[in-house]
Specification:
Blueprint lengths: L1 H11 L14 E4 L3 H14 L7 E4 L9 E2 L4 H14 L1 H13 L5 H14 L10 H23 L3 E2 L5 E5 L6 H11 L5 E5 L4 E6 L2 E6 L10 H17 L7 H7 L15
């Protein structure tokens, strides 16, 4: 009876794999965080002889969930990234871009991609016929394109206290690389970036860059100079347009409508 109770407890905690589930030994779970994902990948690469026969997914704590849970280890996660960066810089950049996309249910593909990147180095990008490599590269490219777009589409507004604020709602979690970009471009100004969707913010002031979360956000009042500049910019935007050469499809391709909400020149359309 005591043995039965022990086995039940081990099964519920994913420490024991019953005979009727022969695939569990190759199934692993993590806590859903970025550090947890990279920790799990690092552990599997070290412990499994053939990582491509392994599956990895986020732990949901459901009754019949199968797999061994790998604990999160932030130093291990960081070590994995820097080792990959030394071995295959392009692959490490792809990994970083993929993580920005916050794409769920692709953990196994990412595991296989990292495993192959360590094996083949940056030549891994040439194996696009491999499903895992193709999927990871495509998602990473999407995140990279959005980051590139936001560098040009972000609009800073001057507030009454003299600081500048730019709001955005990107598909990918790009606030960190975007903030580092503007910290080099707008070093003399005091500014904020605010991701409305994720309620995260970046602040640059006196040479210091800080990140945080904002649970309740109220848009500060604009300065009078900002209101005048916006009115002039809207008038300029309308004046220089040539009606006969208007191409809405091309405009939406270069500047998707999902970004228009915070573009001064597109207000009222």
């Amino acid at each position: 009876m005591q043995v039965a109770k022990l086995l039940c407890r081990l099964i519920l905690n994913n420490w024991y794999c019953p005979v009727f589930s022969h695939n569990v030994m190759n199934s692993y779970l993590y806590d859903g965080t970025a550090d947890g994902l990279l920790s799990a990948i690092s552990w599997i690469l070290e412990e499994e002889a053939d990582p491509e026969k392994v599956t990895l997914s986020e732990r949901k704590d459901t009754l019949f969930e199968e797999g061994f849970t790998i604990s999160t280890d932030a130093p291990r996660a960081e070590s994995l990234f820097f080792r990959l960066k030394q071995h295959a810089p392009d692959a490490a950049h792809t990994l970083y871009s993929f993580m920005l996309a916050e794409k769920g249910e692709m953990e196994t593909s990412l595991l296989h991609y990292v495993s192959l990147a360590f094996r083949h180095g940056d030549q891994v990008k040439g194996y696009l016929t491999h499903p895992a490599i193709r999927d990871i590269v495509n998602v990473a490219k999407k995140a990279g394109r959005e980051l590139h777009r936001m560098k040009g589409l972000l609009r800073f507004e001057k507030l009454q206290d003299g600081a500048y604020l730019a709001k955005m709602e990107p598909d990918c979690n790009i606030i960190h690389p975007l903030a580092y970009h503007f910290s080099r471009r707008l070093r003399a100004q005091h500014w904020f970036l605010y991701d409305v969707k994720r309620r995260t913010a970046a602040r640059w002031n006196n040479g210091s860059l800080q990140f945080g979360t904002i649970e309740q956000f109220t848009t500060p009042a604009l300065s009078e100079d900002e209101k005048k500049v916006q009115a002039l910019w809207q008038a300029f935007f309308k004046t220089i347009s040539i009606p006969d050469r208007k191409n809405p499809r091309l405009q939406k391709s270069n500047m998707p409508m999902k970004y228009w909400k915070y573009l001064v020149e597109k207000q009222g359309e």
